[in-house]
């Protein structure tokens, strides 16, 4: 009996080992994406398939509707659930800025005059609920963005023929004359008002993520619309989190692997110290907000090879509302620029902010370092006396100004810093801290009349206009306004129109000129660009996880260790 | 535990017979109740010591501007993130490049160190004391005014008036006070309060004062109502009515003076509760708004640096403990001084 048991045990052990080896081998041998998140430049979809992970978000997404969301918390998820016609190569660095077809068969054919784009939808696509994808769904998708007065509206009304008229008509079921589609041939034709070098990137935005043609014209955050993507959102706990599960209807798309994890549960964890501790203890697998203070220090010391700094194409700045006194006066705006100490702000960010004078980030085409900075070296002490003098000259001393920030870690502190600076130069700040879940909607509403406050921007796509639309007069809206400072400079507007007609390489110098004027006129107070620590729990395979320059965390590349 | 049918609060078991005998002797001596209470309080050295401690805390809070100006040479909101100090022959970065604030220098400037924004912790502690004590005391005054008013009206008129007021108090009683405070605080934190001609800016400390003053009304209104229900049946009230006194005269002239001892007993405990509630609301972002300091906001802000700079959290926490402890112990002493037979607790 004993001898038989030993033999049986040995046989079972061999069987179990064989099964384990087979499971660890992975099923992606025929996937031709190469590279990993840490070493080579492309995503390596290895790591174990299956399992569940839990992520922590610092705030609940503004929306979980691809037509509306405009925060990293929302878009990181929606990129994986509602893919557009085009998307980006899953690679790091400059290679990650390359457009590839997603739901379209190929990159668009562009007419000689640059105003007509033709794409063909891939055959046999289905949404996550099994509904077939139709070519006409594209127009419905864009209509929702415009009709709901989304923050992304101006991307389409500023480019597609008939989109502006559709917006003005205010009828949900109206027609956008510049978009035609044939469900039978799956052909989609888009006519632009003028050539636009950034339009292919607009097609790759999550706003353009297809939704079924019967998706209502209302905010669908509580029941997100189905899409085509590696994941689908299966549960929403508003204000607390949501759940994503692997989408069984997701087809094989070259360069766009399916998700590895079966299920991702996302919880809102507002305290970053707690979230970091949870990641270190493997209770959470990923935290979307960079840690600060002791949490950052602890993570650097304890995480070993589980984190790396990722330079982002982002800009942190203070907006100054040109429609609210006294910031309609250039002297007051310049005074604030003179007084802000960028070295201090870099310290507030724990060394994860690169001080700069420019609005465009260094990784963006069109960036030309403004040297010398009109307000002094960003790495030197500010000129507070000059600032005070300008305030006196403008007669703005003692004027009350509302200063807005949200309750997230660092934003609160940064806003308190701005309030102190304004106090020092002679203004009277009224600090207003708003819940992070509704912050951008609040300052983007003209009725709020926010005079100044915190803002930041991470590139939506690798084109300088993606930053410049934040200060383009054309993009001002009554609600969901992203031009928080209501910047409407005729010279800047003109330069942007001209730049947008040209090829990006030709237009780079124009964008640099816009950047310079923006800073000289003091329309915004740019103070730096963020370096984000990308950190994961020990459960996840760090080498395969990709932090994309545009999409940021690419969830389909997250996998449990084999 | 016995329940006194005349009041709505629970009384603990009666005191020892010897203490009761001593109290009865004192009453029989003919000394007025106020002098009697003062005599008893003077004998209670523990209560007196904590009373003096509280007064010291108040004095220190009142001297905050003097300290800030003359000793620390700064203001509670002043950010000095990138500054370098020369203290004791050493160069000290107020906030390091990694974002870690300096610890205690034990000198005039940054005595207890800096917070993440380079602000002086000691200065903010003292100004926080001003804000926390201001809110605690004035909120309690508001609570007392509202509670005495509604409790007296309910207890005196009974019937329909009592029903309306008591049901309103029941509704208020049903809400967890912290949740109610947070809901009100968050909703007023952005836009402020605008009722007719009354306008209070969003970052005014009158906002948390009003909120705390209102949500704590129930704690006192019900005992007051109970007292009035009992007092209105006493002979002196009947006598006043027989002499032709109207309702207003009876309430103000006969009943309210007899309520004073109850109010005095409750007041220190109300202040302690209000200070604690303010700290909780501010910790949660629904109380004192930045950049104004409060012990609650200081504890919340200091959590990021709990390891590298623990004074940011420990100092306001300690102040909170001392303040609440001194008020509670002194309050118990006042209660014992007025009526050694009754042990009062604020309960939900």
Question: What does this 3D model show about the protein?
Answer:
The complex is a heterodimer of chains A (562) and B (348). Chain A is of the alpha+beta class and 562 residues long. Chain A contains 16 helices and 20 strands. In chain A, strands 12, 13, 14, 15, 16, 17 and 18 form a seven-stranded mixed beta sheet that branches. A five-stranded mixed beta sheet of chain A has the order 8-9-10-1-11, sandwiched between helices. A four-stranded antiparallel beta sheet of chain A has the order 4-5-7-6, with no helix packed on it. In chain A, β4 (109-110) and β5 (116-120) form a beta hairpin. In chain A, α15 (490-501) runs antiparallel to α16 (504-520). Residues 1-13 of chain B have low confidence and may be disordered. Chain B is built from 13 helices and six strands. In chain B, α5 (121-157) runs antiparallel to α6, α6 (159-174) runs antiparallel to α9 and α11 (247-283) runs parallel beside α12 (295-302). Chain B is mainly alpha-helical and 348 residues long. Classes of the chains: A alpha+beta (562), B mainly alpha (348). Chain A binds chain B through residues 271-273, 292-298, 341, 343-351, 381, 407, 409, 412-413, 415-417, 419-421, 423, 430-435, 442, and chain B through 77-79, 81-82, 95-100, 116-118, 186, 189-190, 201-203, 285, 289-291, 301, 303-308.
Biggest interface and its residues per chain?
A: A-B, 39 and 31 residues
Count the E strands of chain A: 20
Oligomer: heterodimer
Biggest sheet statistics of chain A: 7 strands, mixed
- What is the H-and-E element order of chain B? EEHHHHEEHHHEEHHHHHH
Give the termini separation of chain B.
16 Å
Q: What's the pLDDT, averaged over the residues of chain B?
A: 86
What amount of the residues of chain B lies in strands? Answer: 5-15%
Label the overall shape of chain A: globular
The helical percent of chain A reads 25-40%
Mean pLDDT across residues of chain A: 88
Q: Give a quick account of the main beta sheet of chain B: strands, pairing sense, barrel closure.
A: 2 strands, antiparallel
Strand order of the largest sheet of chain B: 1-2
Count of helices of chain A? 16
The unreliable regions of chain A are 1-44
Q: Would you tell me the structural class of the helices and strands of chain A?
A: alpha+beta
Radius of gyration of chain A: 25 Å
**Termini separation of chain A:** 36 Å
